Amino acid sequence: MIKINLLPYHEREKKENLARQMIIIAGLFVLFILCLVWLQLFMVFQVKHLETKLADSRQTLKILDAKVGDLEKFKQQKAELELKIGVIGTLEENRLLPVKTLDDLSMLVPQKSIWLVKIAQSYDSLTLEGIGSDNIVAADFMKTIEKFPLIQSVDLVSSKKVEIADITLQQFIFSCKMKKGF
Q1: d(Cα 149, Cα 181) in Å, to the nearest integer?
Q2: Pair 91, 164 in one domain
Q3: Any residues with CB less than 8 A from the CB of 23 and at least 6 apart, and which?
Q4: C-alpha distance from residue 60 to each of 19, 64, 70 (Å)
Q5: pLDDT at 5 > cutoff 70
Q6: Which of 95, 121, 137 is the last residue of a domain?
Q7: Contact between 105 and 148 (Cβ < 8 Å)
Q8: Are both 81 and 155 inside the same structural domain?
Q9: 14-42 confidence digits (pLDDT tens)
């Protein structure tokens, strides 16, 4: 015998499946919306955090720029001071050079036959004016000066006879070129 079930259980199953599917779809939609909201909030917080970090970095950069500016200023002042110290050191080294030069030059002058009247120096030239007993003494003195280590060359500018206290003497002017570095 054939049994026929006329109860609509397939339709009830279809309705239940459809209702279940609608609930699942609605739940997934709500879950999707919640994920989007969470992602949006996460991005907003990240942007705010990065903006705060950027502002802090800019503030730190301003402070560091000020310090670098001060550092450059100090470096420039240090360079100026080192230059001044170098100049002072050079002056200290050369402080006694003119005195020593004059002392050495005075040792070259014959005591009884030559008298120096004037010594003048400008840059790398030295002018000696003096009086000697005669031409030979003046020429010998000129040769002696040429051998002086600081002198490169000696030129006779003038030589003439003068009478002082009824004694005839030889007045001379030498122009000396000094070596570089002295």
Answers
A1: 12
A2: no
A3: none
A4: 61, 6, 15
A5: no
A6: 95
A7: yes
A8: no
A9: 888 899 999 999 999 999 999 999 999 99
Q: Is residue 120 part of a domain?
A: yes
Model confidence pLDDT, tens digit, residues 58-97? 999 999 888 888 888 898 999 999 999 999 888 887 777 7
171 and 127 in a single domain? The answer is yes
Together in a domain, 20 and 55? yes
Among candidate residues 60, 95, 130, the one where a domain is terminated: 95
**Residue 21 belongs to some domain of the structure:** yes
Provide the pLDDT confidence category of residue 10 given band limits of 50, 70 and 90.
low
Quick check: is 2 in a domain?
no
Q: What is the 3-state secondary structure (H, E, C) of the chain?
A: CCCCCCCCHHHHHHHHHHHHHHHHHHHHHHHHHHHHHHHHHHHHHHHHHHHHHHHHHHHHHHHHHHHHHHHHHHHHHHHHHHHHHHHHHHHHHHCCHHHHHHHHHHHHCCCCCEEEEEEEEECCEEEEEEEECCHHHHHHHHHHHHCCCCEEEEEEEEEEEEEECCEEEEEEEEEEEECCCC
